[in-house]
Structures are given as C-alpha cells and as structure tokens.
What we know:
By secondary structure, this protein is mainly β. It is built from four helices and 15 strands. The protein has a single domain (2-55, 94-235), classed as sav2460 like domains (Lipoxygenase-1), CATH 2.60.60. The longest helix is centred in the middle third of the chain and has 12 residues, at 80-91. The protein is globular. It comes from Streptomyces longispororuber.
Amino acid sequence: MGFFDGLRPGKAMDFASGSAATNAIELTKRHPTVSLTKQGAATGNLRVNLSWQMRTSDLIGKKRGGGGLLRHPFKLFQPEEVQAHTQSMVNVDLDLGCLYELKDGTKGVVQPLGNFFGDLNGPPYVKGSGDDRFGSGTGETLYVNLDHRESIKRLLVFVYIYDQTPAFDRTSAKVTLYPSNGPRIEIDLDERQPQARSCAVVLLENVKDELIVRREVKFVYGFQAELDRLYGWGLQWGRGYKSKVS
C-alpha cells in the first residue's frame, strides 16, 4: 500500500488537555527524555501542537535591507506582531505529521498530505486536526489516545516544509506535548538548518509498558521518505500535492 505525500483541510478538534499546567518540561540535548508513565500522564488524550513564527532577527534584517519601509511606508504604522505574522504567511508553511507503528506490526502515517488524518478511537489511535498554512495562534495539532497505549509500539512526530523555500533557519518553531495530566513538554526547533525540508522532532516509544518521550530534532534535506529510511519504517512513498487556497 502506498502512502502519498496530497491534502484537504480537516476539521479542528477540541479535547481536554493538560494546557492548564503552570510548569513545563523542556527536552534538550542534555536532558532529552521523560517518562509519561512515571509522570502519571500515560492515559487520556495527548495533544501534540506545532506553532511557529518568524525569527525577530530575520524580520529586523528584512526591514533594514533594501529600503523596504521606503517602498511600503504604511508598515511604519503596522504593529510588530502583525508584520511578523504577515511574513510567516508569505514565507513559511510548516506541516505536522506522525509515523506510527503498532504492536501488531501495522505501520503508516498521519498527515494532511494524502488526507491521512488517522483515527482517535481506532487504529492507529492518532488523529490530525488538519492543515494550518499560516502559522496561526493555534497551529497544527495531533491527538494520541493513550488509553490504547498497549497497542502502540512507537510514534515519530515530524515537521516538514511542503513546497516553499526551506526556511527552518528563519522560523522559531516549537512542538509542545500536552498530556491529560501534569506539565506540558516542550521541544524547540532552534538549530539553524537553512537547507533542511523535514525534521524528526520527538519519538514516543512503548518500552516494557512504559511510555518514553525522547527528543530527536534531526533535520534532513528530503521529505517523509528520508525520515522513513532514517528510522527504518519501511513504507512506500509517492509525491502528492496540496489543493490551492483561494
């Protein structure tokens, strides 16, 4: 069975989450793992959110170079955050996806391309919220039903740039995990990788009935097929296309 990289926006979903937690766990190179089981957070719906904005230094550089304000003088009266959001709309289209492998050997992908939105209450117990092309405040979200954790072997959450110019070095992106209980878990995509098109962000593994979250943040120059080869998923991939936004 082929898994094609094609898309149709899905309907956003609203679940209870641990977003009310006042503290957060940041996964870094020095501290890359956390156990959801030991945190008492291995049940309910795990919300995985991608958000991003343009780097401030990039926006300042654009303003100072080429007389941009002289050509567009009304930008002097435009709030900074609006300018940043406009830049992200023009330059960046980050997508969120998840490779999954279940205990019974089933493998696949949940992503907007190809309309692979998954299923929360049946296999693969992962559901995508759809495609956010503009880096809005809510961003893109995946939901994982951890009440079926015994069926899940591993999940690889990844981010990719569909067809725009590679711009990971010009964005400040973050993936945040909101368990049903306890603090949120944050992973920053803060490495400068100007030519990369995809990034394996975080791996969720079921190790002897313990759910371990591990920071990956591995950038690659290709798309899902290259991530597949890097982690040995063994799927078949084909090129797909997004529908145009009117």
